[in-house]
Amino acid sequence: MEKKESQRQTAEAEEKDPKTAGEPSPQTQEQGGQAEKIESETPKPGEELQKKLEETSRELEKQKDLLLRTAAEYDNFRKRTAREKASLYSEATAAAVLEILTVADSLERALEQPDCTAEDMRKGVELVQRQMKSALEKLGVEEMGAQGDPFDPELHNAISHVEDGESGDNTVVKVFQKGYKIGDRVIRHAMVQVAN
């Protein structure tokens, strides 16, 4: 409807002024300029797709970079953890060996004695045994498996059963070999004889 109105106005203007016939009226020129502006401002469908593609490509590159960085950080973490684990193992071993070296030194000194009586030898062995117990205590190692203890399959290894009226059922009657543990972890089960 607006088009018809503007065409009518243009026709009337041509009738009034024959010189301007064929020339667009100022109003028509203004409308044409606005149409050109609107056409230039509205993006073409191909341009929109191109912009979205570029944005998606940039986002993909960011995610790819983040993934590569994360993978590199994880690899470094894994290598560092392996080095620390190896270091901790060697440090723990060194600490254990250091505690036991005093026992080894005492045994060497005992063997260096040229003449000693059986009584002296016994005293030396008792001294070495006390040093060994002390070293194990410093390392957090506890003895387990004493006579009279209730039998526990988690801690004891029953190598024989015996009928014993004096001891209660499932009681350790004799210890053949002591067991050792660190905290809740059993290092060696105690070898015992159990009463039925």
Automatic annotation (TrEMBL):
Keywords: Chaperone, Cytoplasm, Stress response
Gene Ontology MF annotations: adenyl-nucleotide exchange factor activity; protein homodimerization activity; protein-folding chaperone binding; unfolded protein binding
GO biological process, one term: protein folding
Pfam families linked to this entry: GrpE
Keyword Cytoplasm listed: yes
Keyword Zinc appears in the UniProt entry: no
PANTHER family associated with the record: GRPE PROTEIN (PTHR21237), GRPE PROTEIN HOMOLOG, MITOCHONDRIAL (PTHR21237:SF23)
Protein purpose: Participates actively in the response to hyperosmotic and heat shock by preventing the aggregation of stress-denatured proteins, in association with DnaK and GrpE. It is the nucleotide exchange factor for DnaK and may function as a thermosensor. Unfolded proteins bind initially to DnaJ; upon interaction with the DnaJ-bound protein, DnaK hydrolyzes its bound ATP, resulting in the formation of a stable complex. GrpE releases ADP from DnaK; ATP binding to DnaK triggers the release of the substrate protein, thus completing the reaction cycle.
Name of the protein: Protein GrpE
Gene from which the chain derives: grpE
